Amino acid sequence: MKTAARVFALLTILSLVLAACVAPVAAPAAPAEVAAPAEAAPAEAAPAEGAAAAVPAPAGKNGMPVVGLVMKSLANEFFKTMEEGAVAYQQGRGDFTLIPVGMNSETDIDTQISAVENFIVQDVDLICLAPADSVGLVAPAKKAIDAGITVVNFDVKLDDKALTEAGLQDLVFVGPDNEEGAYLAGVALAEALGEGGKVVIIEGNPGADNATMRKNGFVRAAEEFGLEVLESTTAHWETEEANTLMTNLITKYPDMQGVMAANDSMALGVVKAIEAAGLTGQIQVVGFDNIGAVQELIKEGKMLATIDQFGPMLATMCVETGFRMINGEDITGWSKTPVQLVTAETLK
Predict the structure, then answer these.
(1) Angle separating helix axes 292-299 and 264-276, nearest 10 degrees
(2) What is the pTM of this model?
(3) Strand order in the sheet with 198-203
(4) How far apart are alpha carbons 97 and 99 in whole angstroms?
């Protein structure tokens, strides 16, 4: 119950930010084995002490509303904490049923497509979709909407061009400014290294909009502050792939001074490679997501900074936005959520 109470405290603050951003805004620019859906969170859980539903739950098609939550890899601590936050939120309210589903890996697109299709068959009331592929999940989203299900895109934006071609150009997106967040991390790295610092960028999945936006933010910071980008390449959001990649990059660029990793899972792999090479403290690393494991590395001086995009709250804000839409509010475009630089100083 303490977890639920903490979730509601944070949700209250962030919901105020979200509420100020819901006016229509132009949005920024072989089949895998399907993971078993997580057990639906019990709808009858008692509300947390002092908790109050910020947005009334709408009437469901068959009684209590059912929400399908489609996330990316639950092997990534960011999405695991997101799921935990959403479940705590549902249990605190107790007025809707939540069915969370995650992927086997960050590139397991087929699981997400299957999850959406299963939710269509179940005729859920709301689907909250954090796509692993910003183009590939547009068609399933349209299929769900055509079936009469409310769909809210969150965390990773679906592709603008694909949305327009599907007639979904006004689809609601609840999520952060990934480019701005990466820019903040890039500035922190630039200030630590100084002009002329030599860095590499470890990108996310090329098919994901947030990977593109974060690379853009890193590049913008590098250009503005005179950093030399030695190479920019992908590790597909994965820790082990980033570890192998970084091991090779250390050999290739012995004068490397910094790394911009597009998520914290990859930053973990980068730090591991740096430690194995005996270069701790000589190569500065910034990440994105503010997972617990990275907070410890920052405190120990093994990482410089990361970006908090308040992951545990993203799914709950998506649910609230969907409820408002089902209740009759006209919401379109981008509902922007906050980002914040996290350093050793802010973690004190």
Answers:
(1) 40
(2) 0.82
(3) 228-234, 198-203, 258-261, 284-286, 305-308, 340-343
(4) 7
Give dist(CA 259, CA 320) in Å, integer.
36
- Give how far Cα 113 sits from Cα of 120, 138, 159, Å: 11, 10, 16
Mean pLDDT for all residues in the chain: 88
Residue bearing the bigger pLDDT, 214 or 40: 214
Cα angle for residues 278, 281, 283 (degrees, 5° grid): 85
Q: What is the CATH number of domain 2-171+312-337?
A: 3.40.50.2300
- CATH numeric code, 178-308: 3.40.50.2300
Do residues 297 and 316 touch, judged by C-beta distance below 8 A?
no
Model confidence pLDDT, tens digit, residues 279-306: 999 999 999 999 999 999 999 999 999 9
Q: Cα(111)–Cα(133) distance, rounded to whole angstroms? A: 11
DSSP-derived secondary structure for 110-132: HHHHHHHHHHHHHT-SEEEE--S
> What pLDDT digit, counting tens, does each position of 160-196 carry?
999 999 999 999 999 999 999 999 999 999 999 999 9
Report the Cα–Cα distance between both ends of the chain, in Å, rounded: 26
In the chain, where are the structural domains located?
Answer: 2-171+312-337, 178-308
User: What's the pLDDT score for residue 35?
Assistant: 35
Q: Do domains 2-171+312-337 and 178-308 have the same CATH topology?
A: yes
